[in-house]
Design brief:
495 residues, mainly alpha, Sodium/glucose cotransporter, 19 helices, 0% strand, globular
Length: 495
């Protein structure tokens, strides 16, 4: 009986989650009284809330939809993205998280451009960091909206609610819920539901992985043999992307996490600096558990398509939805889809938050030298505008969710890793080095992307842009005379 109502059960579970989001927004409205509440949750978060906020923001539509899609289309290549997590989180803890929280406390910073302006003592650096954040937010937010729309489109069609729902209609429905959730409650609505969302995602990923192991008698070993028989490279250590391309992903994702504003800004919200020692390990454990869904579903669907157990997918992004609708128990499928929406909604809200902060809080300070009169009202209006723009990009891009997400990640990494991750640990670099690094990252990343340039050996555009910006940042820092830092900033960078 459950199998006969599989699609409807899943749709009800997703609908229930969306209602929960609306309730979270209304609850958070009472706790959002100022711009500091809207952007930084009043800096009152504990260990578990922050850990799950960081984890939920990272494992999003990119991981739940795009990750299995990459495994389906490229084989083992995307393992190198997951493998970078240990490296990246160690760097975040030792190089970025502690100093961001300290600077946020001594200078009352509520955004990453606030941190950059305090570190470099420069309005121009605040402005350039704001611009690269805004550009990255549009690309990555489009990823989340596209992932939500693809999932909802599949659910509505399978449940028979609409025979052929358009992607635009599904994007409109998804964005409506997202906007209510984000505009009313800001970051408060996101972080206080991330703990529940995170637990659901972890349990769902583990149960799905168990289901994956049961789809073939030989488990992962049999899946790998089937894939290798079709394409030996896909089952090899580097996948179909090849060694250089896979290592470029390891580089941009491993090093690049130090420049992801939706991740590192969460550390500003911590109640105490000492809590960082627990936040990062908890986040790594949670991400590792959910990565099993990324790996398992992608491999299972590729093996099923090759062995005749399932028709080939029209798009790799359909891998998660197809597996859950076909092979998972209806109640598990409903739970996972709700978890997927939880991950996407959480990350989308985080991106809206940092993008809105760049427009409302930082660009006016960079251009005019002073804040807007009513930042909270302006923040809510700008949130709507950014969502509409990102939805348009999502519908026009036509890219895989994972590749669109990789572009957004690369934009942040190339523009912000030198300025934030390196700059908070190296006093010699000044405003000139920071501005040139940001400008070069935008020119290289967007130039390659818009020019349709394919780099040799499958090298990622973001990795190339990050390499260029790092070389320029370090080179200019070494060749120019360092400017004395403010005494409090100088002491903070010594801790």
């Amino acid at each position: 009986m459950l199998d006969g109502n599989r699609a409807m059960i899943t749709l009800v579970a997703v609908g229930g989650y969306m209602v929960l989001c609306l309730g979270a927004g209304l609850w958070a409205l009472r706790r959002t009284k100022s711009a500091e509440d809207f952007f930084a949750a009043g800096r009152r978060l504990g260990v578990f809330l922050t850990a799950f906020a960081v984890f939920s923001s990272t494992m999003s539509g990119f991981g739940f939809v795009g990750g299995p899609g990459l495994m389906y289309s490229m084989g083992i290549s995307s393992i190198w993205i997951l493998g970078s997590i240990a490296v990246s989180n160690l760097m975040v803890l030792t190089m970025v998280g502690k100093r961001i929280r300290i600077l946020a406390g001594i200078r009352n910073c509520i955004s990453l451009p606030d941190i950059a302006a305090a570190r470099y003592g420069s309005r121009s650096v605040r402005g350039s960091v704001s611009v690269v954040i805004l550009l990255g937010v549009i690309g990555y937010l489009a990823t989340q909206i596209l992932a939500m729309s693809i999932v909802l489109q599949d659910l509505l069609a399978e449940a028979g609610v609409l025979s052929d729902p358009s992607l635009a209609l599904c994007a409109a429905i998804s964005c409506s819920v997202l906007l209510f959730y984000s505009v009313i409650g800001g970051i408060v609505a996101s972080v206080y539901t991330d703990l529940v969302q995170g637990v659901i995602m972890i349990l769902a990923a583990l149960l799905v992985f168990v289901t994956v192991l049961g789809t073939f008698e030989g488990g992962l070993a049999e899946m790998t043999r089937i894939i290798a028989a079709d394409n030996r490279g896909a089952a090899g250590a580097w996948g179909t992307l090849g060694m250089i391309g896979a290592l470029s992903w390891f580089f941009v994702f491993g090093v690049g996490v130090g420049g992801q504003p939706h991740v590192v800004t969460k550390f500003m919200m911590l109640r105490r600096v000492s809590d960082l020692r627990m936040v990062v390990p908890l986040g790594v454990l949670a991400y590792t558990a959910t990565a099993l869904l990324w790996i398992g579903v992608g491999l299972a669907m590729r093996a099923m398509a090759l062995s005749g157990g399932h028709p080939p997918l029209a798009s790799p992004d359909e891998a998660s939805a197809a597996f859950l609708q076909t092979f998972a128990h209806p109640l598990l499928a409903g739970t996972v889809f709700a978890a997927l929406l939880a991950a996407i909604m959480s990350t989308a809200d985080s991106f809206l938050n940092v993008g809105t902060a760049a427009v409302v809080h930082d660009l006016p300070r960079a251009i005019r030298g002073r804040a807007l009169k009513n930042e909270l009202t302006a923040a809510r209006l700008v949130t709507v505008g950014l969502t509409v723009i990102a939805a348009f990009v999502a519908l026009q891009a036509g890219d895989l969710v994972a590749l669109l997400g990789a572009f957004g990640w690369g934009t942040f990494a190339a523009g912000l890793v030198p300025v934030i991750a390196i700059g908070l640990n190296w006093k010699r670099a000044g405003a000139l080095a920071a501005n040139v690094a940001v400008a070069s990252s935008i020119v290289v990343n967007f130039g390659l992307r818009l020019g349709g340039v394919r780099l040799p050996y499958g090298v990622d555009h973001g990795a190339a842009a990050l390499a260029v910006s790092l070389v320029l940042f370090l080179g200019i820092g070494f060749l120019t005379r360092p400017r004395p830092l403010a005494w409090d900033i100088d002491k903070a960078l010594d801790i």
